[in-house]
Amino acid sequence: MRLHQLKSVGLSRRLLGRNSLYLSRKREYAHGATAENERRDDYQPIEGLVKELSANLPHFRSPISAITVLKEPSQFYLELVNLIRSAKSRIFIASLYVGKEETGLIEVIGKALEINESVKLTILVDYLRSTREHSERQECSASLLQTLKARFPERVEIRLFHTSELFGTLKRLVPRRFDESFGLQHMKIYGADRDIIMSGANLSSDYFTNRQDRYVKLTGQEELSEYLYELIELTSSISYQLEAGEDEGHGKNSLKIVWPETNASRPPIDSRHASQKFKTIANQLYQDLTDRWRRKLLAHTDNQMHSPIPRVSIFPTLQISPFKIHHETGLMIPKLIRLVHQLSNSPLSHSHMVQKTMLNWTSGYFSLLREYKSQMLSSNAHVEIITASPQANGFFQSNGVSKYIPSAYSYLENMFRNEVRKANKQEQIVIRRWNRAGWTYHAKGLWINQVRSQDGEERCLVTSIGSSNFGRRSAERDLECNLFIILEPDKPEQQHLLESQSGQALSRQLVDELASLKAYVNVEDQENVHVGIFVKFFTRLIRNML
């Protein structure tokens, strides 16, 4: 009897132990499932964003391992030279200008063309900026580029884009020192074959030494490189062409610049009517490019979404307001500000698994659109803005009226600081000034980052790289191109791969890049910069050109 009772007690204890283990594992599973559900809830806004953007823009996909973030101007120059030297079939460049003293870079390009006779070169720059200093006594940026055309006339194409906003009598009356304020070709694309460097940097010595910008290298990009090449070719088809030799009847050192009959339109500068017709044709060209690539990529992108290789989504945006192309102001930026708001209110944030979702924003020139500022002030999104201090502005202590430009940007910054204080959002929206001795600041872009509560790990969800400063000028006057890169760690296996490659993962690189920029801001410097009455009046007069 006692033996039977002992066996019953032992059986009960074993059953109780198994039940306890079962309940414990069930609770662990439930907790894990909840965390996983919350994680997926957190990424639903990102998935929704990707779907919305795919309906309007070309959607490229890239392996994470194919993207490298560069931090220093010297790195940018070395990678640019390597890119050019490695070209097998084509080199394609879009920039505001090439510095008129960059003979070394021109020689690198010339050598690449000399070594490989199958390489063709296309360079797109801005007409006004590239001919600014030209006279009978002084050469300019275009003069230097002309030497490449003279050496390789059949394999080199140099195009100069002229804004449609300066035409007729206005063009004849506006002094050369001020004509660039009407609009510029501002894209910064540096490509060879299937490799690309996207940046906000131009091609002159300060951008290779002590002018801080941002740079992202993308390798093996078969489709994206083709899209960007076609974008440059399209813009070239509505641009002037630089030919070898002097323009007959215009004296020594004159540039031979022509408008080819094969262009898609007549030039915009003759009259208002010519400008309007030019803009109508250009609008259709850029719309067709966007729609054709969007449709082309839809099926391909759907297949890649199921790939086990961790990939990112890349959406190129064009902002060309004179041509009524508004990818940035009409689509991308409003949706990203809304995304930060959604993530800040997601179940993951409410469960305290995420400490903070932050929109980090930088531009060397503080001139945020009113619409962007209103969205920030009306949202609960945390925003940190890095801009150039007056001393780090490229116009600091320059000659003539341009010496007032740093103070003009400070005035715009002061105005927004006052709005933030009035809304009592000083803890939520912060502006930092970048200042590094002997350097100027030209970086531009944004990062949407999250900090996890459990370990303090910061990760990047979205970033942009390209030419836009997100200001009035970028929105309304210039020709801009950005890449918006969206990291999608929505699959557990991809999240593991992202985190296991801590030093090399794209998210880590982007977080480190932002930290390297923040290393030169003074967090205590929160006071308004003193600005004189004349500068305030001057700024209000020209603010849509800043």
Automatic annotation (TrEMBL):
The keyword Repressor does not apply. Residues 181-207, 437-474 form the PLD phosphodiesterase domain. SUPFAM superfamilies: Phospholipase D/nuclease. It catalyses: a CDP-1,2-diacyl-sn-glycerol + sn-glycerol 3-phosphate = a 1,2-diacyl-sn-glycero-3-phospho-(1'-sn-glycero-3'-phosphate) + CMP + H(+). Keywords: ATP-binding, Lipid biosynthesis, Lipid metabolism, Mitochondrion, Nucleotide-binding, Phospholipid biosynthesis, Phospholipid metabolism, Repeat, Transferase. One of its GO terms (cellular component) is mitochondrion. It is an enzyme of class 2 (transferase). Pathway: Phospholipid metabolism; phosphatidylglycerol biosynthesis; phosphatidylglycerol from CDP-diacylglycerol: step 1/2. It is found in: Mitochondrion. GO terms for biological process: cardiolipin biosynthetic process. Its EC number is 2.7.8.5. Functions in the biosynthesis of the anionic phospholipids phosphatidylglycerol and cardiolipin. Belongs to the CDP-alcohol phosphatidyltransferase class-II family. This is CDP-diacylglycerol--glycerol-3-phosphate 3-phosphatidyltransferase.
